[in-house]
Amino acid sequence: MTVYLPAVAGYPALAAALAEAGLGVGDIVHVTEYVTGPLRLAPARRIALAGHRVPVSRVPVEAVVGGSRPYALGVSAHPGGGTLLTSGTDAVRVADGLVHLPGVHTTAGGFREQYRWCLDRIAALLDLAGLTPAALARTIDYTATATRAEYPSCGRPRRDVLGPGPVHPGAAGILVDLPVEPGARVALDALAATGPLSVVNPGWERYETLTYKPAVRAGDKLILSGFGALDPVTQVALHAGDLVAQAEYLYASIETVLAAAGASGSRVTSLIEYVTPDAVADYPRTRALRERHFPNAAVTAVVCSALLRPEFMLETIPAVVPA
To answer: 214: cis peptide before it, omega within 30°?
Structure first.
């Protein structure tokens, strides 16, 4: 079973965090670096990983919630570290039926062209595992507030590469105004599965025409989209300016999707929460709600620049959930 560690306070803290979970560096299958600036982490990464090659994603954020740390790590691990696949500097790890990929981006072209390049790059990485984009279980897009108006143009490249469905991956879209590299208008993270995927949808018709779904089932696992306070029928953003009400609504939405798959919030072991700057002060007030819905979930909370719907103050992405 894949283990998702609580937010790790930098590479010097990595070994101790793994040991607390009964794991070691050789068990890591993916690392996400949530960075608050153009930090040079490669030297610390090399020391901490001690030659263990893993796919790495880099996500610029405004801040790490709950401290003044310049960065934090999201770490996924599986006993034994799964199977390493490489091509040049690329590293992909396959473990427990999941395919962990590095984050991808380019600096050439406009938003739509860069988005298509990212999808094609992901397809090339999946080819290392003998898979196609049909194996994608979730994508997370990182783009800028200034690009929000252009975001709908990603629909065409997604349909071109992912196909007409009916199965599409879960998805999330986060706005981060510090690019992963100057000139990069979008960056993508992706997770895939080695076995067949099926859609999990509690009956929300809007997803019939979209290139992403509320969740997919991959064997004995559920991979969910990111959730905000959006009415899935009317597509109206709800509870503008009220973080606690938004949290209650989106947590209930996650539980609705889990229930459609025969699961519950108690199975969620880890959440990533993207908080907007104007919601940080109220964020501690969401803790009781979160613990009621997801009593066993460790939380990684970071401050993004904004979310795709201007009214959203919070977007939550559950880690992979046992079905």
So the answer is: no
